[in-house]
What does this fold into?
Amino acid sequence: MSYLLAPTPIVADALLLPRTVLECRSCHSGRLRKGPQGYVCDHCGFAPFGEHREKVPPPSPVAEKDPTVGRPRPSTPLSTSAMPLPPPPQAVLFSAQQPRPGSLRMFWTDAGAGVRFAAEVPLQVLPPGEPVEARILVQNAGGSPTPVRLFVLTDTDGGPKRGGLATTGDLPPGSVLDATYSLTVPANSTRGSVIVHCEPVGPLGRGQDPWQAPALQPVPAATPRLQPSVRAAFAVRPNPRCPRCTGPMRWCPREPPEARAWVCEDCAHRVEGGILN
It folds into this structure.
């Protein structure tokens, strides 16, 4: 036995929006009906979408605040990056177990009492008016502390001889004194030499300062007799030529950490020691 089910009639109100949606939110008794101007309540005439709304500009972005503004800053000392730093102190007393730079090519002379010495002019060509730097090395190879007396004589073709005297402290056995002295020469000189005499003396009871060379005091330029000596020559030239390309060279004063030197204007060859042959 079969039963035929009649089709269920479709109610038109089921396809409409729920009643709660179309109710007027102003009077709650009428219903919203769509008209030419939009939805309007059929009871009080309220039109929810007909209100005039003023356009407002979008909010401007929020600028991030600098966290350092308004915050007290600690006081900092004046920057010293632009201020030249003084050169560090250079030792003058060393152990003989560590040979000094260039000491192996120097001519050493025996002064007696286990003391030997040598001297050189590192840069042997200078411009007019530039002082000569004389380097003096003294080694105590004996078995007891021994001071020495140094007599330095500057002999040039532009004026009289000039002398200087320096006395070291007690040099410990196995030590080397490496001291450099700046010697003034007449401006009209073209060549000259530095003569160094060395004489061991009796113990003084005071050691040699390892950071400061003994001062060179001016004395009459009388050549000591019967004392060992060494000689180092130098020349004065206003316009030397480059030993590499024969170009003109210009003088560059000392600017630590660089030493004074001649520099070629053509090939930039730099000469800080020796001669310009």
